[in-house]
Amino acid sequence: MTERIVIVGGGLGGVRAAERLREMGFDGQVTILSAERHLPYHRPALSKQVITGEWHPDDARLSFDADLDAEWRLGTPALSLEPDRQTVWLPGGEQMKYDGMIIATGVDARTMNGAPRHDPRVHVLRTLDDAVAIKNSIRDSQGLVAVIGGGFIGCEIACSVRHLGRDVALIARSPQLLGGVVGDDIGKTITDAHRHHGVRLATGVGIRHWVRQPGGIGIHLSDGQVFFASCVVLAVGASPAVEWLRGSGLIIEDGILCDATNHVVGAENIVACGDVARWPNMRFNGALRRVEHWLNAVEGGRAAAENLLIGKSAAKPYTPVPRFWTEMYGMRVQGAGLPVLGKDTTDVNGLTGFIADGKLVGLVGLEAPGRIIVNTPELFRQNTVELDRPAWTKPEQAPAEPAPAPAPAPEPAPVREQVPTTALSVPPSVSSSMSPPSQRRRHTRSRPETVRSGGGRARP
């Protein structure tokens, strides 16, 4: 029987994992299950170019290898999993067997207790359809747009609404926007920029209650303020998309529990990557955490695919230094590491450095791309890990520290290679149907027919 790897999740992490499988010479069947009806797209554009209308939704489509020869099952969410039988259940009672699985389901947007979520004027932002709905709601309404949440997404949406010339209120529980993520100084600069550009800020407040009326929605705040909005966007964080794993026997508290090498704890031949994976990054104290950054989906997807193929015994610990960025009003904020771990801050060549236990654990800079690039390797130098300690594999064990990762680099160009495997077989040579790297085509909007949905074939 032809070996099959099922990738659950059709976003960035899933497609980069699929590419890595083919680069390593995997010639079995690759099936990608996606709850969404769209091919992969750039999520960072949703809160910016898509909402403002600068991009048509198709312009957000992600470029990926057209030679994947994958079976795309769009609009087909995984409903449940039986790891012991290596079976995933799909809509209509369909059962799909797998030899290996990569879980890349990402996160779902959170809502708020008491918020009238089912009112068509109240939105969340996670998917392309969400972004289009918000764009249309802003276009079709005339009054205030209220954004709830002072994190990255909330701030970006408020900026986009002002870009459209619309009145917007930004309501946040924290006293300062992004303060806990980027530091007080940069947080204050971002807060002041929103105020300077006409955003009606309400910070350090909660929401007492909501009042739905024909002309809009009343938002009553804890400090007595009341906003009356014709469109509301809830940007209050995200939750890992693991509901389909309930009853599977896997540990899914705040994401799916993985060991240091992306392998899912308590299961065979399953790895996870991206926002949904909760794993111990031993470069940063080994505590279990998830990382919701674009680049983690890229790097984590590739690492998970590789570790699935080579098996647990040869798998490499995944120890990245996360990087992130955002842009508002022409100002670019960039960061590296895990600033949230910092107990103190210090100046690092004009950047905000976050310190924990005497080590540099994060850097954030405003309009300082060159300094971020130059100083990020310091995170690797200080947060080194030992070479001769095994990867942590069980939740009751104390995390061990793996080998150091290389310095950060842009998303790597695909290279086909042969890697010894133990878990899943890889053919001794790459199939002739797989063109060399210099000739590989990238899937773009101009060639949608090169990637099939709902069909496909196993490699010969």
From TrEMBL:
Keywords: FAD, Flavoprotein, Oxidoreductase. Residues 395-460 are annotated as: Disordered. It comes from Lentzea tibetensis. GO terms for molecular function: oxidoreductase activity, acting on NAD(P)H. Its cofactor is FAD. This is NAD(P)/FAD-dependent oxidoreductase. Residues 4-301 form the FAD/NAD(P)-binding domain. Gene3D superfamilies: FAD/NAD(P)-binding domain. Residues 401-413 have a biased composition (Pro residues). GO terms for cellular component: cytoplasm. Residues 425-438 have a biased composition (Low complexity).
